[in-house]
Write a sequence for this structure.
């Protein structure tokens, strides 16, 4: 069982499913919302239990982002046309049981760091 929560504990989530697609996102939206690189993995919507009052922000025509209105933690990313939800690996109570697979949106990464872990990088 993977469990996580926001900084203040207002929102919690859990899943017994094996997370898929663990990645580090370097896009401008994730950098602005998280203050850096956002790490996440996803599971089917019906395999993710969320408790608490998630605030959703429609960040684009394709997706929305879920966060805690009380403490500001950025917890979820959901494409409008998919039946999966990504959750923040940084919000998971260890152990995560997850190993990163890739970096995404690296063409948008900040100029103040390098990616040097050898994982695949996608523009």
């Amino acid at each position: 069982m993977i469990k996580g929560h926001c900084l203040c504990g207002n929102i919690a989530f859990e899943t017994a499913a094996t997370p898929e697609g663990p990645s580090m996102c370097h896009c401008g939206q994730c950098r602005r919302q998280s203050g850096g690189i956002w790490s996440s993995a996803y599971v089917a919507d019906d395999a993710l239990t969320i408790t608490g009052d998630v605030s959703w922000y429609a960040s684009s025509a394709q997706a929305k982002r879920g966060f805690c209105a009380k403490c500001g933690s950025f917890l979820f990313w959901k494409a409008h046309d998919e039946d999966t939800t990504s959750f923040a690996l940084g919000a998971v109570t260890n152990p995560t049981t997850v190993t990163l697979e890739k970096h995404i949106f690296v063409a948008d990464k900040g100029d103040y760091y390098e990616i040097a872990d050898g994982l695949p990088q996608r523009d």
Q: What stands out?
A: The beta strands are 2-5, 12-15, 20-25, 38-44, 48-51, 54-57, 63-68, 74-79, 84-88, 102-104.
